[in-house]
Amino acid sequence: MTTAALTANPLLAYLDVATHSDSREELLAELVATCLTTVGCDSCDILYREAGDGLVLRASTSYPELNNRLKLGKGIGLSGQALITGEPVFLSKDATKHPNYTKYPGFEDTAFQSLVILPLMGNSPQPFGVLLFRRAKIWRLGPTEKRRLLEISQIISACLRGYNAAYQAGAQINRLGALSEVSKTIATSPYVEEILQLLVNLTAQQFNYRVCTVRLLDENRGELVLRATQAQAKAYQRKRAIKLGESIAGRAIAENRPIIVRDVRIEEDYIGHDLAVEQGLRSMVCVPLTLQNKPVGVLSCYTSEVRDFLPDEIKALETLAKTAAVSIEHAKLQVRNTLMQEMHHRVKNNLQQVASLLRLQMRHSNYKSLEEALNDCLGRILAIASVHDLLSREDLDHVGIRSIADTLVHHQKSSLMLPDRQIQFQVRGTDVTLNMSQATQMALVLNELVQNAMEHGFKQTQSGEIHINVEEKEDEVSVWVSNSGDSLPEDFDAAAASNLGLKIVDNLARSLGGKYKMSNVLGWTVSEVKFPKVTGD
Fold first, then answer.
1. Which run of H or of E encompasses 505?
2. Could you tell me which residue, 50 or 117, shows the higher pLDDT?
3. How far is residue 260's CA from residue 286's CA, in Å, rounded to a whole number?
4. Is the dihedral of CA 225, 227, 230, 233 positive or negative?
5. Rg (CA), the chain
6. Alpha carbon distance, N-terminus to C-terminus of the chain
7. Residue pLDDT, tens place only, 438-483
8. Cα–Cα distance between 531 and 471 in angstroms, integer?
9. Residue pair 123/164 in contact by the 8 Å Cβ criterion
10. What are phi and psi of 416, to 5 degrees?
């Protein structure tokens, strides 16, 4: 190849590429494509330095499918050495036979003879990447050709530096404005759910992210629970809880620092690769939400392309996360104050409910002793009290059915199970959250059904199981209490049963807007309550 084969003045071609590219990924792709014309090579790659002085392929004319996936460790191959030494590599022939040559891992290189590797220099003494040219034939490289190739590498370095500087300057201005806008908006909301939804919606919009999510920490279970996302896909909205230390979000909050993933589709620790592909997610940053160094949750932001998160961008997100954590805690305190003001009203209602239950028991005077009647009263009052106890420990004015069931099962086992009975309990299904009113009614329902299963389901049978299953489908909640003890009589009719507990269950099911039935299913006695879930209190 002669000097004439190189474009006489490639500067204009590269400047045109730099001024018309809308993103860094597009710029890199256009630069390597332009090299094919201006240099006359058969392929061109750009690799960027990564943490630990490794390399990652960012643009390629021959292997574009490996972009952001192919990585080389520190000092690996001729490219790795050029990155460390900052010295160019010129091989006119037999390049693949060089003792330090390393082919791309997991990929068969196309046969070629010559190889040129040029450092890409930034503002620091160390290269920020390398530019790699290949030719299938022998490439006779004299001093003039080498000098021109070095000039092209300098032009490309300048284009990338200029783009990065312009991007950072513009992005910093945009991020400062975005930070102010998001912080101001979430600070004015008095409701936790609204704060979380505003946070993900505005952050995604102002910072141009594909998806934003917020997970809050459930300290009792040591899990991060998805509470808000602006992603429309139902599958994404139903993502499971994450244990502390699990996945990227779990690590971010466990280590109390932002964690960046260049490409979630190939990150081993990331949970949900298929969903990431479906939603078009690539790079991610997870920022912990903390209040006085106490973890509250984590904010996860995803891009639609593989890219870096710049230091000032991360600082803006950290500031936003701290503002959000303060707003969340402030909203919780406001709601709790409101709840305290309303508590006397709720206590009054619950006391009236207790009085109604006592009057109902007085009319249903089939108790063998005063102690038996008082125990029934005690169980029902404790069922109501369990909701208030959970309310003080859980999510403001909502309580989960499974949490109610776990509490009641513990009480029933310790106070009602006869010494000679061996009954195993299982609580399964979704922890559907209910408002205060529905939670109180459901606590009474579960109390009656579990008590009925223990007292009447195991009169003859001395061992077995009691299962409580909870399910939510299209805003309808279904709860089953099943026992493997004594079978129901063949002529059993729940509607005609004189058992006070079952009458209470039937009345409460109706007040919930639902229905109740009891039947034999495959040898098990199954009580089922279905009712529509309401969002208000």
1. helix 500-511
2. 117
3. 7
4. positive
5. 33
6. 80
7. 887 888 888 888 888 887 888 888 888 899 999 988 888 999 999 9
8. 11
9. no
10. -115, -20
Give me the DSSP letters along 119-151: EEE-SSSSEEEEEEEEESS-----HHHHHHHHH
Predicted TM-score (pTM) of the model is 0.43
Sorted by sequence, the CB contacts under 8 Å of residue 102 that are 6+ apart come out as: 72, 76, 77, 78, 80
Q: Are 302 and 270 contacting, i.e. CB atoms less than 8 angstroms apart?
A: no
- Token pair for residue 135? 């030719």
What length is written for the chain?
537
Tokens read off for 203: 């952050």
Per the DSSP assignment, residues forming a β-bridge with 218 are 223
* Triad 394, 398, 403: Cα angle to 5°: 55
Q: Are 210 and 302 in contact (CB under 8 A)?
A: yes
Give the pairing type, strands 284-291 and 294-302.
antiparallel
DSSP string computed for 342-385: HHHHHHHHHHHHHHHHHHHHHHS---SSHHHHHHHHHHHHHHHH
Per-residue b/e over 434-460, b at no fewer than 16 CB within 10 Å? Answer: bebbbbbbbbbbbbbbbbbbbebbbee
Give the residue-averaged pLDDT of 306-313: 84
pLDDT at 19: 52
